[in-house]
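F.,

This is the one I mentioned.
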């Protein structure tokens, strides 16, 4: 039997204060994430909020931005703080999930190809079955060596490297259907 939990990764106000922040995909992300979290809670699936915390800057507690984005209205079953890209290292999340017999994790949040993808990979390595709800993740264009990957390219790349190896990419609707 599968017991699921949703990991809502880094959906925090800190991102509003980064120079790469863009509103372009934010409304669709808000809608998808809200649907996913509401659907999970209606099915009595715990939602765990993960916040990224650094010593200085907009991800520090002193900034006042390490808090949920204003559109989030769910009540998390637990909150964990991380200091690296994945939600497991030195957070207590693995222990919390295992104490509740959770063996299926649903990944959503910010940034698709960074903390969300990294958490999915580590979760898979730890033996969890992972669903990656790309539609309920948010990212921004990235440039390296004068080549820019747009949001769609980053999402496609993430799904490509996760699928069949670390996670099953699904839409919000398909994920919620799976949970009924």
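My design for it:
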């Amino acid at each position: 039997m599968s017991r699921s939990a949703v990991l809502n990764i880094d959906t925090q106000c800190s991102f509003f204060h980064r120079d790469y922040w863009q509103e372009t995909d934010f409304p669709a992300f808000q809608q998808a994430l809200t649907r996913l979290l509401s659907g999970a809670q209606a099915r009595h699936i715990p939602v765990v909020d993960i916040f990224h915390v650094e010593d200085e800057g907009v991800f520090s507690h002193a900034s006042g931005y390490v808090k949920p984005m204003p559109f989030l209205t769910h009540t998390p079953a637990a909150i964990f703080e991380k200091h690296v890209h994945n939600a497991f290292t030195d957070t207590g999340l693995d222990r919390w999930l295992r104490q509740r017999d959770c063996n299926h994790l649903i990944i959503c949040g910010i940034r698709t190809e960074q903390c969300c993808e990294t958490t999915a990979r580590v979760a898979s390595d730890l033996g969890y079955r992972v669903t990656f709800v790309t539609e309920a993740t948010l990212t921004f264009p990235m440039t390296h060596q004068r080549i820019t990957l747009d949001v769609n390219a980053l999402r496609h790349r993430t799904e490509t490297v996760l699928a069949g190896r670390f996670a099953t990419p699904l839409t919000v609707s398909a994920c919620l259907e799976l949970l009924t």
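The longest helix spans residues 26-42.

Talk soon.
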